[in-house]
Amino acid sequence: MNMQAQPASAYFLDDRKRAVETHTLCVVVDNEPGVLARVIGLFSGRGYNIDSLTVSETEHDAHVSRITIVTSGTSNVIEQIKAQLERMVPVHSVADLTVQGNAIERELALIKVAGKGEKRMEALRLADAFRAHVIDATTESFVFELTGKTSKVDQFISLMQPLGLVEVSRTGIAAISRGHEAMKI
To answer: Which residue ranges form the domains of the chain, and what is each CATH number?
Structure first.
């Protein structure tokens, strides 16, 4: 048998599949018109996906907003996203909460469920188990408010489907790092 060994070359490293990772990025930006569109344009223009997006002004006097983006890609893509965000003019700082570790992530969902009789009672029982609050009720429906990890919200929604799930509205992930230090402005 005549077997030749493959030469050791960096070019062969690209043939391997790279693992896709999900990261939560917090971006502090100037609170002015068009900034969100520019940040989102960076993602869409390069074909990066956004799994979740939340944004709100966090410091009125400083006129800054915090954008929380959950995105996925290889480690190289994530690094490229962070580097490109940091180069944008209205961006003050970028933090990768996934790399920092031990961040707190929560999502708010409003879930409308319609039903009568036993299904109605089961929906209320499950809502109590998940610590969901009834924020609106009629004789034929409920609107539940649920806050928690995305997996908890997903699980609650899947349990409500056979009980008469009508509609869901979700905020996306809000995240913050643990500890006493604040993110740079």
So the answer is: 18-100 (3.30.70.260), 104-176 (3.30.70.1150)
